[in-house]
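Trying the structure run again after the queue cleared.
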Amino acid sequence: MGIIYVGILFCAIAFAMVVIYICFVLKRVSNTMGTLGETLDEVGKKMQHVTPQLLKTIRETDKLIDDVDDKLKATDSVFDSIENAGVSLQSFNQVYAHSAKQLSDEQFQKKTKPFVESMKWSEAALYLYSKWKKDKPAKTNNRTDVNQTEKEG
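Done. Tokens:
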């Protein structure tokens, strides 16, 4: 019978060791949960501080997006006008190409001669005007110099 009591004693000692080990594990889990609770409290406080700023930023971003959208809508008419001008230019080029195919070189030169002549005359007039403008200040400066020498003398 003594062996049975010794076996029961060993079982009781083993059970006590398991209970002690479980107590240590539960104590560590308890400490970890306490630390986790403190961390979550700090995060909550920081979120209370950050949340209003984040909401303000989101509202400003929403206003900015609306403003950009309005400005993009305002430019739609400009791009539509550019598209229409491109279509018109393309149509003009097609008509010109069609007309140019039908005209001979001699007829083409005959029809463009007045434009070429007007360009030549406008260049000549521009050249004379610039020459006249360049010479005009020099003549006025000479007259001023003559007037000053007369006053001094």
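The CA atoms of residues 114 and 120 lie 10 Å apart. Worth checking whether this holds up in the mutant runs.
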